[in-house]
């Protein structure tokens, strides 16, 4: 049974038409003892509980299945879910040797971004001062602190639940060079201006709206790692927008990388745009 796919487990309970609608991918957050699965099930597929129970049968460590009811929404960037299984959805997730305590119902966390977090950590030079916007429960900050040798990391996050977990995760991973701050990026304190060698902006939906704040935080020759969703033919416009914002602040920038991180939808990619401030 452990080698059966989810669809094979469901083959006796669903029709062929229903089986065709069952998602082939889902996220599992947690560890071998307790995990939560997050899945998107088409609205027309009504027997969601049957699918959730099959998923928990296939993955014995999954105690709860969270079925997405909406896209990320609100200033805290969380999903609405239908909950099937245990109601307590707080889990301990392990990534790249780091531990993250979190509740997917209260905070946003994507295990699919683990490889990208390592790619960013590999870019960090020794003794960099780093600012992370939209820091969440601290995955970028903690991975970087563990895998590189930054001088200091500041993470800004508006969701108080995420900041609470961020602070716990700093202690869990026995780190002392990270500061988790509850704040709105648009209201960033002047004390952070011209203080950072790098600003990381891992919110592809709207990070570009906060370029001004990133430029204020960056030192001369500082680097920005910005994420966005775009079609290939939109990248030129996005680069032009970034340049225009920089020009208004009397800053010159140079683009150093345009990276396709992963495909997000038909013709849409998640990009990372890296640029340096001159």
Structural description of this entry:
With 278 residues, this protein is of the alpha/beta class. 27% of the residues lie in helices and 32% in strands. It is built from eight helices and 13 strands. The strands form three sheets. Strands 9-8-7-10-11-13-12 form a seven-stranded mixed beta sheet, sandwiched between helices. It has a four-stranded mixed beta sheet with strand order 1-2-3-4, covered by helices on one side. A hairpin with a 4-residue loop joins strand 1 and strand 2 (35-39). Helix 4 (114-123) crosses helix 5 (139-147). The protein is globular. The mean pLDDT is 94.
SSE diagram, text form:
Blueprint: H1 6-10, H2 16-21, E1 27-30, E2 35-39, H3 48-58, E3 62-68, E4 81-85, E5 91-95, E6 98-102, H4 114-123, E7 129-132, H5 139-147, E8 152-157, H6 160-172, E9 178-182, E10 196-201, H7 211-217, E11 218-230, H8 235-248, E12 253-265, E13 268-277
Parallel strand pairs: 2-3, 7-8, 7-10, 8-9, 10-11
Antiparallel strand pairs: 1-2, 3-4, 5-6, 11-13, 12-13
């Amino acid at each position: 049974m452990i080698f059966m796919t989810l669809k094979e487990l469901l083959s006796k309970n669903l029709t062929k038409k229903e089986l065709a609608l069952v998602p082939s991918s889902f996220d599992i957050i947690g560890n071998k003892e307790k995990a939560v699965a997050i899945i998107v099930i088409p609205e027309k597929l009504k027997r969601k509980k049957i699918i959730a129970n099959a998923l928990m049968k296939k993955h014995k460590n999954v105690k709860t299945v969270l079925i997405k009811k909406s896209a990320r929404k609100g200033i805290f960037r969380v999903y609405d879910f239908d909950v099937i299984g245990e109601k307590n959805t707080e889990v301990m997730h392990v990534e790249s040797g780091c531990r993250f305590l979190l509740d997917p119902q209260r905070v946003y966390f994507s295990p699919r971004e683990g490889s990208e977090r390592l790619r960013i950590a590999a870019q960090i030079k020794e003794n960099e001062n780093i600012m992370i916007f939209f820091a969440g429960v601290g995955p970028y900050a903690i991975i970087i602190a563990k895998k590189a040798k930054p001088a200091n990391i500041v993470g800004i996050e508006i969701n108080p639940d995420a900041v609470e977990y961020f602070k716990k995760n700093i202690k869990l991973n026995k780190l002392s060079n990270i500061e988790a701050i509850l704040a709105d990026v648009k209201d960033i304190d002047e004390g952070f201006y011209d203080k950072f060698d790098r600003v990381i902006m891992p919110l592809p939906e709207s990070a570009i709206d906060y370029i001004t704040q990133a430029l204020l935080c960056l030192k001369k020759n500082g680097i920005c790692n910005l994420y966005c969703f775009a079609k290939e033919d939109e990248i030129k416009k996005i680069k032009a927008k970034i340049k225009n914002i920089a020009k208004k602040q009397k800053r010159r920038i140079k683009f150093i990388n345009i990276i396709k991180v992963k495909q997000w939808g038909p013709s849409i990619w998640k990009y990372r745009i890296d640029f340096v401030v001159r």
